[in-house]
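Fresh eyes needed here. I'd like your take on this protein's tokenised backbone:
***
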Amino acid sequence: MDVVGPQFHDLHKFFESQYEELNEVVDEVAERVRTLGGAALGSLTEFLKQTRLKEHPGQSASTLEMVKNLLTTMRRLFSLACGSGKLCQ
């Protein structure tokens, strides 16, 4: 979703920081997977086939809805990470 409105700059910076943090985590996980002898996903096509998260292309949302969507997504990622191993123990 596109960020629009009076809070554009602040939200854009916030979402960008979230993206950058998540990108670092994904990279670290991929490196760990390779270290353990696995094969990490490496293309957008592979990610799209494996994703469990929902996108909302072409839709707009209020700033509050955008933050709520991010929180829901982060909770989902945490839940998936905890459910797939001993990451949360």
